Amino acid sequence: MTHDLGWDFMNRNRKSLKHIDFGATESIVKEAFTNFYNLESLILPSTIETIPYMAVAECVKLKSISIPATVTEIEDRAFENCRMLSSVNFAKDGALTRIGNWAFYNNHELTNLVIPEGVTRIGFYGFAYCSSLTTITIPKSVEAIGLCAFVYCNNLTSIS
Q1: 131 contacts 154 by C-beta, under 8 angstroms
Q2: In terms of CB atoms within 10 Å, which of 20, 30, 125, 154 comes out highest?
Q3: Rounded CA gap, 152 and 136, in Å?
Q4: 55 in helix, strand or coil?
Q5: What element of type H or E holds 10?
Q6: CA separation (Å) from 156 to 42, 69, 109, 128?
Q7: CB 42 within 8 A of CB 65
Q8: What pLDDT digit, counting tens, does each position of 124-141 carry?
Q9: Which residues pair with residue 112 across a beta bridge?
């Protein structure tokens, strides 16, 4: 998708687009899908290495996301305020090592979370205010969990 045609089209239609599939796009710019209020489905390309700052923030109707195996980092606020997000699927044997600050902040429908082996850092407020979160599985590879990473996860009953 060229910048001149594609991004202008998307920005004009950000309130009406419901599904986006980018196929083999090599990268996504920061804030690419921020405030796409009606976006229900987003297929991230299996060629990207980073989910940038606020890439999908404020997509309040997005229900699930699959993180491709090629992704090494989920930057700060990438999925912040995706309030309907109920499922985050991380690729098995993926390259993910870092989940940024506020990456999944304020996602009210997320109930279960399995962070994949290989992740070494979870940023501060990374999953804060995920009020429906009941279980979390954190792998042995995690070396640092930021301040308030799981604050106000009031229904959390199990961490392993």
Answers
A1: yes
A2: 125
A3: 14
A4: coil
A5: helix 8-12
A6: 27, 27, 13, 11
A7: yes
A8: 999 999 999 999 999 999
A9: 135
Tokens of 35: 């405030």
Q: How many CA atoms lie within 13 A of 86 on its CB side?
A: 5
CA distances from 106 to 36, 43, 55, 61 (A): 17, 21, 15, 13
8: enclosing H helix or E strand: helix 8-12
d(CA 155, CA 80): 19
List C-alpha distances in Å: 157 to 2, 90, 141.
Answer: 47, 22, 22
Tell me how far CA of residue 82 lies from CA of 38, 47, 96, in angstroms. Answer: 11, 23, 20
From CA 160, how far away is CA 141, in angstroms rounded?
13
